[in-house]
Specification:
Length: 102
C-alpha cells in the first residue's frame, strides 16, 4: 500500500472563467518536496442554485520526464539538463497544463 500526503494545492484561473485546482502529492516517508502525483479538479456551478463545487477529472499530469531516471544508464550526451523533479517543476507542469486547457 502506498500512502500519499498532500504537499501543495495550486489554484489557477479567475472569477470569470472559473478555477482549476491542482493537488500535488508526495509519498509518505520520502522527501516531501518530491512530487509523486498531481490530481486535477475543475470548478463547476450548479445551475439550480449557483453553488460551486469541485469535480475530480481523469486528466493526468505526467512527471516522469522530470529529474534523473533511476536504474537507467545514459546512452547519449545531451546539451540540456532535465528539469529537477521538485515542487517548482511540478508547479510549472500545472501552469503548462492550465495554458493548454484555456
Amino acid at each position: 500500500m502506498v500512502q500519499l500526503n498532500l504537499a501543495r494545492v495550486l489554484l489557477l484561473g479567475d472569477e470569470i472563467n472559473g478555477y482549476i485546482r491542482y493537488e500535488i502529492f508526495s509519498k509518505e516517508g520520502e522527501r516531501p518536496d518530491y512530487p509523486e502525483k498531481i490530481v486535477v479538479y475543475r470548478e463547476k456551478v450548479l445551475e439550480a442554485n449557483g453553488d460551486k463545487y469541485w469535480v475530480k477529472t481523469d486528466e493526468v499530469i505526467n512527471l516522469d520526464h522530470l529529474g534523473f531516471q533511476e536504474g537507467q544508464f545514459q546512452m547519449a550526451m545531451t546539451y540540456h539538463m532535465r528539469p529537477a523533479r521538485d515542487m517548482l517543476s511540478a508547479i510549472d507542469e500545472c501552469k503548462k497544463h492550465y495554458r493548454k486547457t484555456c
